[in-house]
Amino acid sequence: MTELISPTPPVADARLPWDEAMADPIGAIAAARTQHGDTFVIEGARSPFLFLFSAVGVQSFYAVAESDASKGVADWQMLRRKLPPELFRDRRTFPHDLFARDDVVQYLDVVRSAITIACDELGDSGTLEVFDFTRRLGHRVGLGTWAGPCGTSTEFNELIDALDELDGAAAFVDPGAMAAVAASDYAAERAALATAEEIIGRAVDVRDADAHEHTDHFQRIVNTWSDAEPDARREGIARDVILVHLGSMSNLFSALGWLLVDVTTRPELAAAIRGGDHALAERCALESTRIAQRSIMLRAVLQPIEVDDGTQTWTVEPGVMLATLLPLTNLATEDLRAYDPERWNRRRIRDGRGGGDERELVTAFGHGAHTCPAQPFSLSVMTAVLEAMIDRYDLEPQFADASPRAAQIGGVARAAAPCPLMYARRSA
Prior knowledge:
three-stranded antiparallel sheet, CATH 1.10.630.10, globular, 2 domains, 12% strand, alpha+beta
């Protein structure tokens, strides 16, 4: 399929993890880059992947118009490996619809309530597993925001179990398992979808029976289906909620987990944040997310385009995937591999602290039109949780090391092993 790219680029003798099980796909791509340079192709089962790693190449990757090379289409093509296709049909609400600047203020009360409930569940002392804790808290924040009153604690637990089964990020986190998903024709995923639809559908019924006027995000989703027939309306609202939740929360819990790991293993940062340094808390959130990034950034070419990598201009036809890989650019130098929140000035890398002058090479949430729309929301949640946990508890790591899963490619890293954290409530 390299005939879709002219002139013919170097072709790496490598595979991609959703085509062939691999222990370390990021290492395999790094080896291909060492052999072939900053531009090369890996032949995928469905399309060739043109990898770009030079500064100019990555700039070109971000600069191509969405109508010519689509991030949205590329993401959908990846997510459909895990999620039933019917979940994507006839959607009326998408994550970017709920993350305008003014929306973040409305989320904060939900976040505070979720933190209070989570701390009540913890009690005064004990040991928590960081990523289990942040996953459950992330579900509570998201569902409290755009799923309305989901009923009893039993219903909440059933719903998060179903959403964990539906987690589209598994296409990146555990790409080797996607063949089994396809072979089953999404059996487990469709069962989970039915459970989630029923529970959220009951929340729709509760909202319909409530005579009070609501203006929350759940009501915004409900309102978009006001013209639909009853059964289609109930299903449509539920599937919009599910898709918004999966699109918004699947990586937030992991980024939040790494933030707790990174700060609690650096007592000087924890002390400064406890002392009221909110700006430092946000810088830590950005730095933890940057280092934990395992995202393979993809764009599906829809129209013939030209891509300049600084050395060669490539003519690329529809059917090709443009790609770059954040762990290879975010961690390219010894300085970038070090955890240092001071490399951030507000939400931008300080000049000279990003591995070069080309800002696109290093990122936490993407660049330009492809910046994650949930960035303000995510940073607000992460800093609020970090500050609350540090203020309320003495936190002592019970793990010697925390490292990412080697088999993952895409999204924010999941931990390779549990990260227990001992906590004890601080006196007032």
